[in-house]
From TrEMBL:
Protein name (database record): Putative antitoxin VapB45-like DNA-binding HTH domain-containing protein
Domain Putative antitoxin VapB45-like DNA-binding HTH: from-to ranges: 17-96
SUPFAM superfamilies: Homeodomain-like
Top-level taxon: Bacteria
Pfam families found in the cross-reference section: DUF433, HTH_66
Protein source organism: Limnospira maxima CS-328
Length: 240
């Protein structure tokens, strides 16, 4: 019984609203207006009048603006689908609805099942909806599979950790220098294996401390501190 209660508590932690939309945009290199559309939806004009586009990401509590760790992971996956492959929002919505029905969950993108047969189902829907070329499908599958290597799942096969991309132009998906874990530092980005928030070391660097001194103070390697600072600077630049 203790184990069951612990699992429930852990899974509840994934749905705690702790991230502002602005912070989520920074961490994931997503333009702020784009993420707001995914979270809030939008209206768009048609020949039959304005139509409403429903949100792609469902907040854990509609009356609270913050996002959860689950939402963070969803945005991580959606970023490639929407921004890299430029799939229209309407098609993304339809494909998400379909795979949600298949998986019997409101959050299919955070299920480990999505990393196996889920990706194929998802891409099949895009083929049907937008007549994607075979080469386009393969490219999307490769990038999605690489992106999913940056997620770790718990024993219930739910996303429990995310290793954010440091450099938006990097194609090194195996680089896991930083981690976002709702169990560590209130879910803020930290240096993997240390619990040291990237924001703290960046503030020290901005205040005049050298990378070597910061590394000595926190018992880290200088390259780890450099990557943390690079992540924060790239994140700030990403949303301008």
């Amino acid at each position: 019984m203790v184990k069951t209660s612990s699992l429930l508590t852990q899974q509840n932690l994934y749905h705690v609203p702790i991230y502002t939309i602005a912070d989520t945009a920074r961490y994931l290199h997503i333009p702020l207006p784009t993420l707001k559309t995914w979270v809030n939806g939008r209206s768009y004009p048609t020949q039959k009048g304005d139509q409403d586009f429903l949100p792609l990401i469902q907040r854990p509590q509609p009356n609270i603006p913050q996002l959860s760790f689950t939402n963070l992971v969803e945005a991580h996956v959606l970023r490639v689908i929407r921004t890299v492959h430029n799939v229209p929002l309407r098609q993304v919505r339809l494909a998400l609805d379909y795979i949600s029905e298949q998986f019997k969950t409101e959050h299919p993108l955070v299920q480990k099942q999505f990393s196996t047969d889920g990706v194929d189902i998802f891409i099949e829907q895009f083929e049907r909806l937008i007549n994607a070329s075979r080469s386009g499908q393969l490219a999307m599958k490769q990038v999605l599979n690489n992106l999913l290597t940056r997620i770790e799942w718990d024993e219930q096969d739910i996303a429990s950790r995310l290793f954010p991309i440091i450099n938006d132009h990097s194609h090194n998906f195996r680089d896991k220098v930083l981690i976002i874990d709702p169990n560590i530092s209130f879910g803020k980005p930290t240096i993997t294996g240390t619990g040291i928030p990237t924001k703290i070391v960046t503030q020290l660097f901005d205040a005049g401390d050298s990378i070597e001194d910061i590394a000595d103070d926190y018992n880290c390697q200088p390259w780890q501190i450099q990557q943390a600072i690079l992540f924060e600077s790239n994140s700030q630049a990403a949303i301008g």
